[in-house]
Amino acid sequence: MSAWPDKMTVAPIGEWPGLLTKTRKSSPFRTTLTETLKLLDRETWHLAATDAQIRTAELLIAVPAGQFRIDGRPRADARPEHPGVIFSMDSRHGRLSYPCDTFTTWQDNLRAIALALEALRKVDRYGVTKRGEQYRGFLALEATAAPAGFATAEDALRFLREISGVAADVYEAPEVHLPRVIRRARRAAHPDMGGDADTFQRVSLAEAKLREAGRL
User: Fold this and answer.
1) Closest Cα to residue 182, out of 214, 150, 212, 211?
2) For the chain, which residues make up each domain, given as ranges?
3) Each residue of 26-52: pLDDT tens digit?
4) Considering only CA atoms, which of 94, 8, 81 is closest in space to residue 48?
5) What pLDDT digit, counting tens, does each position of 11-25 carry?
6) Does the pLDDT of residue 174 top 90, yes or no?
7) Are 3 and 76 in contact (CB under 8 A)?
8) Angle made by CA atoms 53, 41, 210, in degrees to the nearest 5
9) Which CATH code for domain 153-212?
10) Which of 31, 77, 124, 209 falls between 20 and 30 A from 71, CA-CA?
């Protein structure tokens, strides 16, 4: 099983930014998804100025909600609607967003993003730039997930408690209470457990909002 970074939210893509690539390239990579996720996790750490920024990392994949596991990760046999992926996060340079659908599989497109992040960081290493100018072209890109997200962390938490049926517990530490709420919300919303795709997506977005706010 692939080692997904604990602090990264994974969710279905709502809308692709722009036109999808018509003619895609075959894989130039010889590596595993686990190795790609390790590289992405490392580059996320380098980009972030704080732990709170690391928690804003979000990967959107064109996999229907019903093909995600209860833990919020895509199933190994998930069939995406297209191979495009979008990786976004808050960073020391601002909000960054990287869509890629150059290759025929989403795993290869994710590998391409991870390698691109590594290459951009090396520009700073060799002193070519001083203030991260190489990232400016990616600041205006926006990744979207449907349905709409949450305005505040409290709105997200209220939704998760409602779906999960877990009430607030003033005697339970947040690091114990919140993961339990999320686990139960995922289970209740998952299409295989009687839920529906839209609600499951909303659970993912609520979790992302809590991570962005530093609550997870």
Assistant:
1) 211
2) 9-138, 153-212
3) 989 999 999 999 999 999 999 998 988
4) 94
5) 888 778 778 898 999
6) no
7) no
8) 35
9) 1.10.287
10) 31
